[in-house]
Amino acid sequence: MRVLATGASGFLGRAVVQALQHAGHDVRTLQRRPSNVDGAEDRLGSVTDPDAVASALDGVDGVVHLAAKVSLAGDPAQFRAVNVEGTRTLLDAATAAGVSRVVHVSSPSVAHAGHALAGVGAEPADPDAAHGEYARTKAEAELLALSRAGEGLALVAIRPHLVWGPGDTQLIARVVDRARRGRLPLLNGGTALIDSTYVDNAASGIVAALDRVDDVSGRAYVLTNGEPRPVGDLLAGICRASGVAPPRFSVPAGLARAAGGLVERVWAVRPGEDEPPMTRFLAEQLSTAHWFDQTEIRRDLRWTPSVSIDEGLRRLARA
């Protein structure tokens, strides 16, 4: 197929484009800066621009929608413009262009209200209960996308969880930087059991979803390695693979949540140049269990991850 991938300049986006190419698809991309993926046809623009979106969709058979505003803090209007209205613009244009297949890349945070998620599947997205502007707008966008499934458009929502790997300038880079500066605490000792996803597995799962979308249209799935580990162990593995000392001090989760709320209020008035050091959402992610049953996604997409966490850490160390 000819496939349009939005947000292809991001860490996961580039991996998805390469996986699509490896599967034999002809890939066009749409994002604000070059994807830098050999062989991909780049179109520069934003999903918030109807003309750019319509042009990029010309002659396209399927879409993988990854473009999003991803941040722990920021202007609520910007989150809404990209995550909700950008998704609406893309879906409207895809319908008009006769696109038959869409994979909407979402996030498990759309169904995380702050309590533990242990061995669950893809519970319904809930914008009212989700914490933080990113999670709220991604929840709304997922519901919007799934409402379009049917009547000639096959659409599935895939929620990769904590994607990481070599070259990641978000999760990995921030973990390593904060650990190096001694500013990476464990919450409640780092004992919360969490899932994560090596980037190659996230990409291959998304490509599998595009291949199988006709059979799973209207569904949402959480995608992970299926190897839950205590958050402290995962952070320690990432730090050691990156040549820095693992975090060694712990703070109570309640204190971190309170501090995160205070930081959010300060950031709303005087935002810093980088991500805030703590938010309520981040404190919840680091202190509550969130791991997911992978039975349905592996069965329905006929997909299994190919890179274990241990192998991923070895690749990270070699990078």
Describe the fold and architecture.
The chain is of the alpha/beta class. Helix content is 43%, strand content 17%. It has a domain at 2-160 and 197-224 and 292-306: 3-Layer(aba) Sandwich (Rossmann fold). The chain has a 7-stranded parallel beta sheet, sandwiched between helices. Strand 4, helix 3 and strand 5 form a beta-alpha-beta unit. The relative contact order is 0.14.
What are its keywords?
43% helix; seven-stranded parallel sheet; 11 helices; Rossmann fold; 319 residues; alpha/beta; two-stranded parallel sheet; 15 strands; globular
Q: What string gives the helices and strands in order?
A: EHEEHEHEEHEEHEEEHEEHEHHEHH
Roughly what fraction of the amino acids lie in strands? 15-25%
CATH architecture annotation name of the domain at 2-160 and 197-224 and 292-306: 3-Layer(aba) Sandwich
What proportion of the residues is helical, as a percent range? 40-55%
Provide the low-confidence segments as ranges: none
Global Rg: 19 Å
Globular, elongated, flat, extended or rod-shaped: what is the shape? globular
Q: Biggest sheet: strands side by side, in what order?
A: 3-2-1-4-5-7-12
CATH structural class of the domain at 2-160 and 197-224 and 292-306 = Alpha Beta
Average pLDDT taken over every residue: 90
Q: Give the terminus-to-terminus CA distance.
A: 32 Å
Please describe the biggest sheet, giving its number of strands, its sense, and whether it closes into a barrel: 7 strands, parallel
